[in-house]
Structure formats: structure tokens, C-alpha cells
Design goal:
Keywords: Membrane, Transmembrane, Transmembrane helix. It is built from 19 helices and 6 strands. It has about 425 residues and is mainly alpha-helical. The protein has 2 domains: about 180 residues, no CATH class; about 170 residues, no CATH class. A two-stranded antiparallel sheet has the order 1-2. A two-stranded antiparallel sheet has the order 3-6. Helix 3 packs across helix 6 and helix 12 crosses helix 14. It is elongated. The termini are far apart.
């Protein structure tokens, strides 16, 4: 069995350098992406976005290297030439396979036993590595779905998630000894990182349907009138999270939409995140298939970029001018993010465009059943803002008719004053000539 001195541990170079060769890197990453996204036709436009996704995952793997190396040495003791990252990738693929074949009752403890059995780990090492294995599986679910990032510092008694959330629930840290015996879906819902399959309806204060208008709910208006800023995040569960009462007014947006589109375009009957949705035990006589719910959620994520940026000209310009650079990770950006937020027709991403049904006005319950509550909070905040000076009044596009009337009045007034001034000058000139 490799000891701590093995070359598997000496690896603080760029992630791609951990893999034995470029061809090996491509094959290893490809198998991992298939595990996450399912089988999809070759789509060159997604390559850069998926490479960014893999880079993010490799960075998370490196954060856990100290805690996980001993376990991986046990699992891959017969492959001492494998790098740490390669071992992690191959272990992730096996965990993904087990999750896809799981049931709504499967627990982290069940998966840990199945992984040990697959790698034929002896009883002594099972006892020594059992806690670490459970933490690896918990972290792996976050890596495979991008829903959350597990804290990598140690494999203690709690399952802990990295969070900059304004108020994390009291149940945010779960005892590993108890959580590992609960169904996967129950554990994730306890952290509030997995969307509720049957979310409550989003209603306006009047009790009517909550409508989301592009003219009101766009980033240009929110940034100019409400001082809203964007924080680009790596966790899908934080997408569209916004605290209107915070000092910074940060709107969190997911930076790698390619993973969402790739899953939605998958030819596989069931994808990994769909299986996790399948752990939902409906209390409301829901007849929808879990798989369709998973894809529905991811399509909402894609459509939200269009609502906030892509369907509004000034917001597209603002993205290209400022946010495009800020959305980069290690100098790279997801091309699909640029297409969703910075273009009117999404350029080469025609397949992704077919997933979306753009409108000028959306119904929060119908078009955004999972993200509707967050978007409604944004819309309420936007509607409550008032222009503070004439420049903001000029740029306030929430009421097009009022804006047109205001601009027309200003233009007519300026023209009238200019003509009057010209007439005065001409009159004075005539008087001067007559004298």
C-alpha cells in the first residue's frame, strides 16, 4: 500500500499536470463529465465551458488532498502510478454510478459500504477509513452536481458546507453519524441546497399571480437604481440568491451554465441530479417525474440569465463592459455565459436556445417554479427603488410609456429653449444691424 511518501501526494502543480498525459487527461475528464451530464452528442461549443467546470472540480479536489489521500491510497493501492487527481476522478465516476442506481431510501452509509465492496477493501481498513469515506461521498455529491462545496479542512464529526449565505439554517451542520443514515435527498434538503420538487406558489401581496417583467427585472435597472452588484459563484444552489437588506446588495449568479445546458441536452434517460430529485417524497400528490423536475430546474437557471441580462439591451451592454471580466475564473470564462448574458440571439448556441421560451413578461409560478421566490424578491426590491436625480430618471426604463413621455418633454423643452435663444440672438443681430 502506498505510504505518504508516494508520488501521489507530491502534487501541487496545475491540475492538468497531475494526469499522466494529455490523452489520459482527456479520457479521464470525459468519463467524469459523462458521469455528471449523461451521454450527449459532440458539441464543440461546450468544450471551453466544460473544461472550466473540470478546472473548478480539480481545485476542490486539491483542497481536500490532505484529508483524502490516505483513503485513496487504500482504494487504489494496486495502482501506485496513479496521480491523486486521477484517483479522485475515477472514484467519483464509481460514486456517480452507484448514485444513479440508488433508490429514494439510499443513504451515504449505504454508498460508503458499496464503494468499499467495489474496491474490495478489507475490514480493518474499512473501520479506519469509514468516516473519511462518508465525507468523501458527501463532498463528491457536491462536486458532481455543483450544488454545494463541502468544507475540506478535515473529516470531523460534522458534514459542513462552505457558505457565505446571509443566514445559514441552524441545521446547516449535520452530525455525520446521524446524517449518513438518512436518505440522500433528506440530507441535501436539510442544507437547503437542493430545490424543493413541489415548491409553494409565489403570489403577489394582492393574491394574484406574480409577474416578472423584463422592463422591471433587469440588471441595468437594478444596478443603476438599486446599487445591485453581481457576485459570480461556483455553487448552483446559490444562483439568484439576494439579500435586499444587506449593505452590499449582492446578487449571486452561477458562473458555469454550460453544465446545466449539457445535462438538459443529454440523451440519457436519467442523469445524476435527476436521481437526487427522485429522492423527493411528495406530500402534494405530485404526478411529475423527478427527471423532468431536474431538467426543469436547470432550464430555469438558464432562462434567468436571459431575463436578467440577455433580453435587455442595456443589461447586455453592462455585462460585456463590466461583468464579463468579473465572471472569469483563473482567466477563463464559460462561453455559454457570454452568449446568455451578452448577446441577443445567443450566437452558436442554437440548441440551448431551443430549451428556452423567452417572453416579455413571465409568470413566477409557471415559468420559474423553483427560482420564482428569489426572482420575486428581486422584482420587489427593484420596484421599490426610486430615481435619485435626473440622470437616474432618464435611465429608468421600468415604465416605458412614462419614460417616453419624460424624454419627449425634455427634448421638446430643450428644442424650444434653443429656438427661443436663437430667436433672441437673431433679434439682437437685427437691432445691431439697423443701428
Amino acid at each position: 500500500m502506498p505510504q505518504k511518501g508516494s508520488n501521489r501526494n507530491k502534487s501541487r502543480r496545475s491540475p492538468i499536470a497531475f494526469l499522466d498525459s494529455l490523452q489520459d487527461a482527456k479520457e479521464t475528464r470525459s468519463s467524469f463529465l459523462r458521469a455528471c451530464c449523461g451521454n450527449t452528442p459532440n458539441q464543440p461549443d461546450f468544450i471551453a465551458g466544460l473544461e472550466l467546470f473540470a478546472t473548478l472540480i480539480e481545485a476542490r479536489m486539491l483542497d481536500c488532498e490532505t484529508a483524502m489521500t490516505s483513503l485513496l491510497n487504500v482504494l487504489w493501492h494496486s495502482h501506485t502510478n496513479y496521480s491523486y487527481i486521477k484517483c479522485q476522478y475515477k472514484t467519483l465516476v464509481e460514486i456517480a454510478r452507484l448514485i444513479r442506481s440508488s433508490t429514494s431510501k439510499t443513504t451515504i452509509a449505504d454508498l460508503a459500504d458499496q464503494v468499499f465492496e467495489h474496491f474490495q477493501v478489507d475490514e480493518t481498513n474499512r473501520k479506519l477509513q469509514n468516516n473519511t469515506m462518508r465525507h468523501l461521498i458527501f463532498a463528491s455529491i457536491g462536486w458532481l452536481t455543483m450544488l454545494y462545496t463541502a468544507k475540506p479542512e478535515s473529516c470531523g464529526s460534522d458534514f459542513t458546507i462552505k457558505s457565505d449565505h446571509r443566514v445559514w439554517p441552524a441545521t446547516g451542520n449535520q452530525r455525520a453519524s446521524s446524517a449518513c443514515h438518512r436518505p440522500l435527498g433528506a440530507v441535501l434538503r436539510n442544507y437547503e441546497v437542493m430545490p424543493i420538487a413541489c415548491p409553494p406558489e409565489v403570489r403577489a401581496s394582492s393574491g394574484r399571480d406574480r409577474l416578472l417583467s423584463v422592463t422591471h427585472l433587469n440588471f441595468f435597472t437594478m444596478s443603476r437604481l438599486g446599487d445591485v452588484t453581481v457576485t459570480w459563484v461556483d455553487d448552483l444552489s446559490k444562483h439568484c440568491d439576494f439579500d435586499r437588506y444587506s449593505r452590499t446588495k449582492e446578487l449571486k449568479l452561477f458562473r458555469v451554465p454550460s453544465i446545466c445546458a449539457k445535462i438538459c441536452l443529454s440523451e440519457s434517460e436519467e442523469v445524476l441530479i435527476g436521481r437526487l430529485f427522485g429522492s423527493h417524497n411528495c406530500n402534494h400528490s405530485c404526478t411529475k417525474r423527478a427527471e423532468s423536475l431536474a431538467r426543469s430546474y436547470l432550464i430555469e437557471v438558464l432562462l434567468s440569465y436571459r431575463l436578467l441580462f440577455g433580453q435587455h439591451r442595456s443589461s447586455r451592454k453592462l455585462f460585456l463592459k463590466h461583468e464579463q471580466e468579473r465572471a472569469k475564473y483563473n482567466g477563463s470564462i464559460d462561453p455559454l455565459l457570454c452568449a446568455l448574458c451578452g448577446t441577443k440571439d445567443m450566437g452558436n448556441f442554437t440548441e440551448t436556445m431551443t430549451l428556452l421560451r423567452e417572453r416579455g413578461v413571465y409568470n413566477a409560478d409557471i415559468n420559474f417554479p423553483h427560482l420564482g421566490a428569489r426572482l420575486a424578491e428581486l422584482a420587489d426590491y427593484s420596484a421599490s427603488q426610486r430615481p435619485r436625480d435626473l440622470v437616474e430618471v432618464w435611465n429608468d426604463e421600468r415604465d416605458p410609456e412614462r419614460l417616453f413621455a419624460f424624454r419627449s418633454l425634455i427634448i421638446v423643452g430643450v428644442v424650444s429653449i434653443s429656438l427661443s435663444f436663437v430667436q433672441i440672438i437673431v433679434g439682437l443681430a437685427q437691432v445691431g444691424l439697423s443701428v
